[in-house]
Write a structure and sequence with these properties.
By secondary structure, the chain is mostly helical. It contains 12 helices and 2 strands, in the order ααααααααααβαβα. The longest helix has 15 residues.
């Protein structure tokens, strides 16, 4: 209906269509302008319907739903995860307002300008590509460094013909776990067994798996360093246990020190 259309946008559309066809991008721009509401917009009808919908969209009461803040898992409700919490929500809102935000809440170096390591990306690209376009392609040796191709061939052989898109053993691909075990053995001078290695999609999922296995009742307590990685307190809270913080000592390079632990936990 004509009264429901922003008059300025309607005038622009009629003017554009008077001597030529309107392209789809032009129509999109016109549609955005025609339905714009808010301060400074000349669209009283759309604004009226918009504000009326806001008044009708009242928040439902908890009693109207069987699953609400009272019936939900209270451990989950109490959980706080600073990495994705109030500060980040506020930062997102400020970014939406046009402010420049540098996010340092997670380990995301590429987002703040660090250049990716080419070797890893090249190897992963060859692993992800179908063999005929990647490791088995006769031109691959001239396109990529020899060490990249060698490593990708080795990894593709370990992954198998299904490629990187298929499920693996629950602990991760066996050959990769062999490599991790050999590395730990050489680094720590302590024998590491591949059967004890679990590969996960990041540190957070590994921490959650370990804490889920450790915590049995709400009387269990987990000691965590202060300052801490926020996932520790978040998962401990969600699983219903208690956290016991201990401060890291400067004298030992912020490493775990039994004297500091004893002092902090006793006090």
């Amino acid at each position: 209906r004509e009264p429901d259309i922003n008059p300025v946008a309607r005038k622009e559309a009629l003017k554009a269509a008077s001597d030529r066809d309107i392209t789809f991008p032009q129509f999109q721009e016109w549609l955005i302008e025609a339905t714009r509401v808010g301060p400074g917009s000349d669209n009283p009808s759309a604004s009226k319907h918009y504000h009326a919908s806001l008044e009708l969209a009242s928040k439902p009461k908890d009693s109207e739903h069987s699953w609400n803040r009272h019936t939900m898992a209270q451990n989950l409700r109490r959980m706080q995860y600073a990495v994705r919490g109030d500060v980040v929500i506020r930062a997102d809102a400020m970014a939406a307002e046009g402010k420049k935000i540098i996010y340092t809440n997670i380990g995301n170096p590429h987002a703040v300008g660090q250049k990716p390591i080419t070797y890893y990306r090249q190897v992963l690209a060859l692993c992800d590509l179908p063999s005929e376009f990647g490791v088995d392609n006769p031109q691959v040796s001239s396109a990529l460094p020899a060490d990249v191709v060698e490593r990708a061939v080795e990894m593709r052989r370990a992954i198998g013909p299904a490629g990187t898109g298929a499920y693996t053993n629950s602990q991760g691909i066996g050959k990769f776990r062999d490599d991790v075990a050999h590395f730990i053995t050489a680094r720590d001078d302590h024998v590491s067994f591949p059967s004890n290695i679990f590969l996960t999609n990041g540190a957070s999922s590994a921490i959650e798996m370990v804490l889920t296995g450790l915590i049995g009742t709400n009387r269990d307590a987990i000691m965590i360093p202060i300052p801490q990685y926020p996932i520790y307190s978040a998962i401990i809270s969600r699983l219903g246990a208690r956290q016991v913080g201990y401060f890291l000592g400067k004298s030992c390079g912020a490493a775990l020190d039994s004297c500091f632990v004893l002092r902090d936990t006793v006090s």
